[in-house]
Amino acid sequence: MRQRNLSSQHKRQGKKPPPKRIPTSAELQTNSEEESEPETSVPIPNGDVEHMVNHETSYKDDVDTRVDVEHIDEQNLDSLTLPAVTKALALNRDGGEQLSGVQLEDLIGMIKNAERNVLLLNQARVHALEDLHKILSEKESLQGEMNVLEMRLAEADARIKVASQEKIHVELLENQLEKLQNELIQRGDSVKNETELYKNQNKISKEDALLAHDSRVHSLSKEVDSLRTENLALRNDIQALKSMLSNVKNTDERMVSLENERSFLESSLKELESKLSASQQDVSKISTLKVEYKDLWTKVENLQLLMDKATKQADHAISVLQQNQDLRKKVDKLEESLEEANAFKLSSEKMQQYNELMQQKIKLLEERLQKSDQEIHSYVLLYQESVKEFQDTLDSLKEESRKRASNGPVDDMPYEFWSRILLIIDGWALEKKISSNDAKLLREMVWKRDRQIRDAYMACKEKNEREAVSTFLRLTSSQASPGLYVVHIAAEMAPVAKVGGLGDVVTGLGKALQKKGHLVEIVLPKYDCMQYDRIRDLRALDVTVESYFDGKLFQNKVWVGTVEGLPVYFIEPHHPNKFFWRGQYYGEHDDFKRFSFFSRAALELLLQAGKKPDIIHCHDWQTAFVAPLYWDLYAPKGLNSARICFTCHNFEYQGSAPASDLASCGLEVQHLNRPDRMQDNTAHDRINPVKGAIVFSNVVTTVSPTYAQEVRTAEGGRGLHSTLNFHSKKFMGILNGIDTDAWNPATDSFLKVQYSANDLQGKAENKASMRRHLGLSSSDDQQPLVGCITRLVPQKGVHLIRHAIYRTLEMGGQFVLLGSSPVPHIQREFEGIANQFQNHDHIRLILKYDESLSHYIYAASDMFIIPSIFEPCGLTQMIAMRYGSVPIARKTGGLNDSVFDVDDDTIPHQFRNGFTFTTPDEQGVNSALERAFNLYNNDKEFWRQLVQKDMNIDFSWDSSASQYEELYAKSVARARAAAATASRGT
Ligand SMILES: Nc1ncnc2c1ncn2[C@@H]1O[C@H](COP(=O)(O)OP(=O)(O)O)[C@@H](O)[C@H]1O
């Protein structure tokens, strides 16, 4: 609305702009229409008297439309500012008691203006009447003149008619005259002839002739006389005709002059007619003027009434003014104290809120404390036990070393004893049962007559050769190993075989442990759909590993290669079902078989390769079988150096199956389908691999501390909360890191331009380039771009993602979604949305897995949305921050451990890095999204700092890997202590 715009302009520009122009009647009409609309009340800024009135909008219009009297002319009569004055009066009526000094001045000024306007209106009215009279009398005289002229015109017409008749008559007479003259001439000739004839006849007879002549003369003279009279008459006639002719000529001349006069009269008639029509228009104008005048008059009357009222109110206002001034002072004082009180109230409210928050936090912390107290207590007990064990071991070692120190090398054994051991070692070396290096180390021990090798030999007397070899080899590995030997057995590894976060963890954690000096190896299935171009030096070994399945042995081809610098073993089963030749990683009807087969084959590989890992780390349900297989089958076979660590990346997926299916991989169903082992907690005829791994592993972790708490509740544990609580001593949450080499905007080759926190120009260029690439509008480079990269499964809050797309559009942003769904109806639904926005300027949905595009989107987006219903850890929020895309996330699981709201007062400033919401519904999404947009649009500097802060957060695996390292080391130490105790006991 114009009025509102004006009002906002007014707020921006400050007080009273000078009157600029007189509005047109149309505008005045508009104003008065707008006046009838409800007006918005605006906050009252401190100490600004003008703004005391709750009708700032009206007031602005009053100021704008105040009349500049000097510029009024008669043509502008219709532009008088009646609405403005009316508004002012209305203002006075409503806000009279609040009138301030300045307003009163304005009001009096306006009233004066109005009075002058009324005066001018009256003058205008008199002028208009006078004009009207003049025009009417002028019209009458013109009408008279016209009548005279018309009469004269008729007269002239009559005369012209007579003259033309006369002219015809004259012409006739002229003809007659001519005839007569001719006749006269003829007659003269005949008289001559007759005289001649007579003379001739005279010669014949004089007497007859004289007689005849006399009578003849007589008759001729008569005839001549008659002719003379006739001639005279004719002459008279001719004279009369001549005079008539001259009369006619005169008449002709008069006619010409009359015609001139007539044409002159006609032109003046035309002129008069045009004048008449003009004056008729004038008359109609006058009549409209009259109507307008009437209008104006009624308005003026109204005005008069209003003015009367206004005068009264002004009187009242003046008296109120006095009171107001007193009140003002009081109000000022009150305001001051109110401000103080408000400040106090605000701080006490904040304090109260803060206190409540703190109390909630304290309660939460107390609960956590209680839980962690319990945990600590149990750990303390465990530690006390281990310390005791250590102490015992230490004591015995001390005792032994004391003995050794006192006794030196073992010399209570004959040389034959040592030689026999030497020969055994050499035999194994020649038979390639041990490496030459190991043989060398063992020989050295024999030369030194080492007590350990003596004990080992003594311990192996009753064992077979294979067991003896591994016992001896354990001596060498414990001597030479500088760190831990960790083998990950997993179904995914980024970037070669990645479906989600699991792949990232295996590679990221592996690389971080490698950097810390540990030996790390990975065992993966050899999928047909892997990214083979990301494997270096891939080759098949010239051996096959046999593994058991469904009562038979199957050959497995073993491939090796390096991925991201890590050594990887790929197992290719030669099984008729072509387990990993399916074109996809998961989602096959026989997944249980595929992965239980793989778990066993992986352990077989470790056993047959003679590996002695300290830790075997398995992940998720696909390789959860490793834990029971290890303890039930492989430790007894000699692969007994390791401790088992199991990480569950998502308790949603537990891989449960009918109990009988477990038998395929050689595990004993009877033995394991028990409530304290692998039996599913909700369906007792099913076994649950994840539960099995929790029970059979030495260390169990999940991917964030908050998620570790959540899954111990009935709501979050997906049926495993009781198992987890029972095994809580070995269970903990460690937040994942990200692979900061792979996810590094400064070196990322997928990006158009590399960039860093100190040089954000590159980020803007990536945004522009990606918009072009996806066909999005680039018209406004400041338009916020929201990114989302995810598997489209219910866990990720798909309905909230959909809502976020539409909400972003409503708020004027752009949205890019990269994702795909294994759930057909979700995939279909998003395909529908993708089609709806196929050529849209601001929305693009790419429904596939695309590693390179994912890098591009992280770099191009300004914000990144993760509205998960639950989220064990989540990597996308961390990757997004690394690329300067501010996360908008639901407070759950790992999101709660890594995203901290910019507005959360309970979090120290330096940790606040994004926008969060608690309730997983549309309002929750809206609130966070709107706050993000608000900040992005209105505080560019704060946003830039936030982006830089996010990019500088250390999300590397370093600290997470240290926590795993500590867990591994403790577990290994406990195992060694236990082994030492056991060996002492035997
Ligand atoms: N369609 C996709 N294209 C490329 N990468 C994807 C796609 N969907 C998910 N990702 C990647 O998968 C990982 C998701 O990890 P995470 O947030 O832990 O979720 P989850 O493991 O539950 O899928 C991230 O590295 C993300 O970039």
What does this structure look like?
- The structure is a single chain.
- By secondary structure, the chain is of the alpha/beta class.
- Among the domains are: 415-478; 481-733, 3-Layer(aba) Sandwich (Rossmann fold), CATH 3.40.50; 761-955, 3-Layer(aba) Sandwich (Rossmann fold).
- 61% of the residues lie in helices and 10% in strands.
- It has 27 helices and 17 strands.
- A 9-stranded mixed beta sheet has the order 3-4-5-2-1-6-7-10-11, sandwiched between helices. Strands 14-13-12-15-16-17 form a 6-stranded parallel beta sheet, sandwiched between helices. Strands 8-9 form a two-stranded antiparallel ribbon.
- A hairpin with a 2-residue loop joins β3 and β4 (552-563).
- α4 (82-95) runs parallel beside α6 (206-407).
- The longest helix is centred in the first third of the chain and has 202 residues, at 206-407.
- The protein is elongated and about 230 Å long.
- The two termini are 94 Å apart.
- The relative contact order is 0.05.
- Bound molecules: adenosine-5'-diphosphate.
Task: Please render the helix and strand layout as text.
Elements: H1 2-13, H2 25-35, H3 56-65, H4 82-95, H5 101-204, H6 206-407, H7 415-430, H8 436-447, H9 451-459, H10 465-480, E1 485-489, H11 501-515, E2 519-525, E3 536-549, E4 552-563, E5 566-573, H12 591-608, E6 615-619, H13 620-623, H14 626-637, E7 643-648, E8 657-658, H15 669-672, E9 686-687, H16 689-696, E10 699-702, H17 705-710, H18 721-726, E11 731-733, H19 761-774, E12 785-791, H20 798-810, E13 814-820, H21 824-836, E14 843-846, H22 851-860, E15 863-866, H23 876-882, E16 886-890, H24 893-898, E17 915-917, H25 922-938, H26 940-952, H27 957-985
Parallel strand pairs: 1-2, 1-6, 2-5, 6-7, 7-10, 10-11, 12-13, 12-15, 13-14, 15-16, 16-17
Antiparallel strand pairs: 3-4, 4-5, 8-9
The structure holds adenosine-5'-diphosphate.
